[in-house]
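hiii, so i know i said id send this last week but things got crazy w the move. better late than never?? heres the sequnce for the chain we talked about at the cafe, plus the structure i predicted for it. fair warning i was half asleep when i ran it
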Amino acid sequence: MIYITQLIYIIDGQEKVFDEFEAVAIPIIRKYNGSLLLRVRPDDSAFIEHQMEKPYEIHLVAFDSDHDFENFKQDEERKKFLHLKEQSIRAAILYQGTKL
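okay and structure toks below
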């Protein structure tokens, strides 16, 4: 099992476009032995301390294997909507790990 944590930074005014992309991408996770464990949109009061820019959303996703995660990224249906991701996301930081 691998875990993916993603910090997502949105282009101002592109929140609806981002939601359109997520509506397509999130259901595809299950197709590749994955689960969306958390999808958090924290407001300013959720941050006690920070040394980096606050993300718009935080995702925690689990996949059975690296291979499943790679297959998810190459999914043809998801690729058809990558223009929405590119239009709405300014930056993303992805952390990959395993459960200890």
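btw The chain has a mean pLDDT of 96. thought thatd interest u
miss u guys!!
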